[in-house]
User: Fold these one by one.
Assistant:
Number 1:
Amino acid sequence: MKAILLTAPKQLLLTDLPRPELAGGQVRVRVRKVGVCGSDYSSIAGKLPFTRFPIVVGHEASGEILESAAQGWQPGERVLLHPILCRRDEDVFARGEVHHSDSTEVLGVVSRNGAYAEEVVVEDYMLRRMTDAMDFETAAMVEPVAVSVRAFQLGKPRGGDRVLVFGAGNIGLILVQVARALGAGQVVVTDISPERLALARALGVDEAIDVREDYPAARLEKQFDMVIDGVGTNDTVNKALAACVRGGRIVVYGVPAGDINYPLKVAFSKDVTLATSRLYNSNFDVAIRLVAEGRLRLTGIITHRVTLDQAPALLLNLIDGKEKAIKVMIST
């Protein structure tokens, strides 16, 4: 089968790999669409410490079942992937907390080849059925929607919340839509990219703030019930705290590059809650429903559509800063 193999940092090889064996409880999927995640870029660039080489990257995928060695799944079914691997014999697995196991890993990062390929073999618990309303492209976007849903829900939303989002990358642009769809009254986003901010405005945010030169701290202070931080720096977490009203909630989903110095005394005085959002549990129901009902404008954030053959050159150009993209979708 044709696949893109990451052999070392920035070494992407389009090659033919043997079809992986199918064991009990596993399903072979013909990949149709696979989205490029921010963590994929980190793996390819050699900046994700968990990545093991060689590996086929990719986890935001949809396709059709080719072969099943698992009960309840039949060839021809249209599916999308829940890409977290976890040992079945653990208590967290039974509770659906697959993201909280010491054995947790994401498809295409450590031990299991991912979906930048014509076929991928996954465990049966990693499959979700597509609805009739979904096409393969929108189905492949369910995983980043799930990231956004969990971040928003960890903020313990109340109807009509004023929400500030730091970062208008592909997750941030989904997040602002998820927040609106799940009841936020006001949605504001900040970023340093004029193109991303323009897209955020087109997607219906109340305000998109360019912070390349200045962050309007005084104007935003004590204005938001929830702040969702996709940047994850000491500066943004402290700005989030300042932007919260009393009783506000901060959710950090951006991966911190280092330790954060959080002013606990100030947070205590405002009774602000700080949560972190890494991955998601086994429940994709809300994400699937939002996508199936057409509540989110997902194809609008896809800036590049390429084939497996075209993908290596584009991904390396993006990593090297020779091109810009918001969301890349690969057809296999």
Note: The mean pLDDT is 97.
Number 2:
Amino acid sequence: MASPSRPKKPVHNVHNGVGQLRIIAGIWRSRKLSFPDVVGLRPTPDRVRETLFNWLAPYIEGAKVLDPFAGSGALFLEALSRGAALGQALDASNVAVASLKEHLGTLHCTTGQVQTADALRYLETQAASAFDVVFLDPPFNQNLLPTVCALLEERQWLAESAWIYTESETAPSILGLPATWRLHREQKSGRVYYALWQRTAENAE
């Protein structure tokens, strides 16, 4: 989910305070789902999602997926559509969470769970479970990314060779993310940097 101050992402088919996102591939391919008019809430653009899931193609099927800033749920739903075994989504907005829960019901999905929660507090206080893929699209200009990444490492939320996707307003090379993470791919669209990292087992404790 995004803050009002972050760079805008393209939103398509927005009308009457409701936007639409399209699931690109998988069992729900081409399904269009609405998302609420919450300030700053914009799905990751289709072409960026397509690129990301091409990168993740060998790893997403059967994966346990975590999305702490789910927003519209575009990444979370795309992962489940493409065969992720289990998904956990969080968002601080009750409206966004209610919408995502409705989508899971519409899609008859029993492998995805979503709840209203502050991501940092949740990761710091809840009993950890190791996830294979994590999507991190926090609000910009709040310096949240280094903190949430450190919590994922310190609280053992990551599988040994987990993949972590980040969206940020600063270049991946200067984010100061955990030393156990290797930058696998990166791309820039407008003022937003998109990057995929892999946790390297040889450096992990």
Note: The first strand starts at residue 18 and ends at 22.
Number 3:
Amino acid sequence: MTESLQELGEHVARSLPGAVREAAVKLGELSVTVERDRVVEAMTFLRDDPRCRFKVLIDVCGADYPSRAERFEVVYHLLSLEHNRRARVRLSVGEDTPVPSVTGVYSAANWFERETWDLYGIPFTDHPDLRRILTDYGFEGHPMRKDFPLTGYVEVRYDEQKKRVVYEPVRLPQEFRRFDFLSPWEGMTREVLPGDEKADVPPPAASPAAPKSGGAA
């Protein structure tokens, strides 16, 4: 299987000169790194070529590497039912740099690209309806970015007086800012954990049996 995937990777690289940066077998799957501006051409070839036939788009997702010059990766996972193979297509993209949409090649990419935009902020050109899909209306930022705060920027609650949902900036009281940076086991100073106070209580002693009353001789 590995040898056939290597041959397939070489075939893809030869057929797409200048579009493929790398074609290698990783984790038992064909991994193809392509140029961003030629991703539509590459995906069309992988779908239609008789040796590929990757007709099913399983997923599109993002990955964030803040230390890289091109911070993000867009990753496409493909499946060929005809040849029983999987392939992974990757491309690098800088922050706020658009990526050509592949919805014209795989209609399933519509919602996947919307999710990637929503969570990572990676825009896709020529997408028919690029808007948020998982976060709420009015959400600020993109929560899967490494620099997005774990607490978020706003909190949502229902205001009983206004009779509607309101958004408020996240506020952390000072008493919640104490961190000891220890694991739960190292930071535990109590001798008895809550709920375990009954663990060492000895069972109640059995009451002595009442003496049997004897009958008359």
Note: Residues 70 and 94 are 4 Å apart (CA to CA).
